[in-house]
Amino acid sequence: MKPTLVILAAGMASRYGSMKQTEGFGPGGETIMDYSIYDAIRAGFGKIVFIIRKDFAEPFKENFNNKLKGKIAVEYVYQELNSFVEEALFPEGRTKPWGTAHAVLCARNAVKEPFAVINADDFYGADAFVKAATFLQLECNETTAAIIGYRLINTLSPFGTVSRGVCEVNTSGNLVSIAERTKIYPKEGKVFYEEGDEPVEVAATSPVSMNFWCFHPSVFALSEMLFKAFLHNNLKNPKSEFFIPIVADHFIHQSKGVIKVIPTSAQWFGVTYKEDAPSVKSSLEKLISAGEYPSHLWD
After folding, report:
1. Closest Cα to residue 39, out of 149, 125, 150?
2. Rounded distance, CA 25 to CA 233, Å?
3. Residue 184 gets which letter from DSSP?
4. β-pairing verdict for 190-195 and 198-202
5. Helix (H/G/I), strand (E/B), else coil: 146
6. Other C-beta atoms lying within 10 Å of the C-beta of residue 234
7. Which among 16, 39, 115, 177 could disulfide-bond with 4, CB atoms 3.0 to 4.6 Å apart, if both were Cys?
8. Residue 133 CB contacts under 8 Å (≥ 6 apart), including other chains
9. What pLDDT, on the 0 to 100 scale, is given for residue 88?
């Protein structure tokens, strides 16, 4: 059975200032998502599930239906505030989405096979999709999930600090925890993050999460259970968010599963800041010149 790729495309890009998920960066107007989908098809994925919002659904669907018709199966799922939420547990004044783990939960009825989850606005590289597809087809089960681990140095922006989830990995290559580090930046060949007012050095080769996860569909039942508990615990916190690492942490420490950290040397890039856009375009041009991608993906 071919695995499915779930793409988180419902979020607004507040720091970037526009819907960067649908901005063209390739020479043919390709979005970053287009390159992820192209890599997924080459790696052996059999279906794409987009998680989007209803307010931009029609142009989004038209765009990708035209591109992907006959190339891969496509489904669309809406992340809505009332999805999997009992009326009595809806916090007064809640307006923002519930977070990445809730977005994935919204895909429950569309995904029945092992699947990967990625962000819409991150370029992950072909190697990551090959490794994810191999894991999903050969190793993924009810007690074994995975995360693609990027080298920290390959995920930084020259235009400002970034936040990254630094993975703690045990001797078996499995995830122990993810430590969220904010204000990460390179300086004089080293990498630092700020803790309080003090810079703390972190190994440049540390594996970090870029939200590229691999799960068995049994994770949906766990996610729904945890989301109900999350709602009970956050009735008076209308800005709380239900993130994938919450589910991952429970999976490891309560459900006694393992999450393999699969290393990739791929160069991640994305648009954290508006100033990153020219660099993204330049990086894609170099990959095209090197023969990694055709100049127009879907011709």
Report:
1. 125
2. 41
3. E
4. antiparallel
5. strand
6. 17
7. 115
8. 3, 40, 43, 44, 45, 116
9. 58
Q: Is 78 helix (H, G, I), strand (E, B) or coil?
A: strand
Residue 70 backbone class (left: φ over 0; alpha: ψ -120 to 50; beta: rest)? left
Quick check: 37 and 44 in contact, CB under 8 A?
A: no
- Per residue in 40-81, pLDDT tens? 999 999 999 999 988 888 888 998 999 999 999 999 999 877
What is the number of other CB atoms lying within 10 angstroms of the CB of residue 120? 22
Amino acid of residue 218: S
Give domain 4-148+207-289's CATH number out of 3.40.605.10, 3.90.550.10, 3.20.20.60, 3.40.430.10.
Answer: 3.90.550.10
What is the C-alpha to C-alpha distance for residues 254 and 1, in angstroms, rounded to an integer?
Answer: 29
Question: For residue 169, what are its two tokens?
Answer: 């990995």
Q: How far apart are CA 257 and CA 215, in angstroms?
A: 11
The Cα diameter of the chain in Å comes to 56
- Phi and psi angles of residue 197, each rounded to the nearest 5 degrees, phi first: -105, 5
Q: How many CB atoms neighbour CB 194 within 10 A? A: 14
Q: How far is Cα 199 from Cα 112, in angstroms, rounded to an integer?
A: 45
Spatial contact of 132 and 36, defined as CB atoms under 8 Å apart: no
Report how far residue 116's alpha carbon sits from residue 37's, in angstroms, rounded to the nearest whole number.
Answer: 12
Contact 164, 181 (CB under 8 A): yes
From CA 8, how far away is CA 287, in angstroms rounded?
24
Domain residue spans of the chain: 4-148+207-289
Query: 84-140 pLDDT, tens per residue?
Result: 777 656 666 666 778 899 999 999 999 999 999 999 989 999 999 999 999 999 999
Of the candidates 101, 122, 163, the residue with the CA atom closest to the CA atom of residue 20 = 122
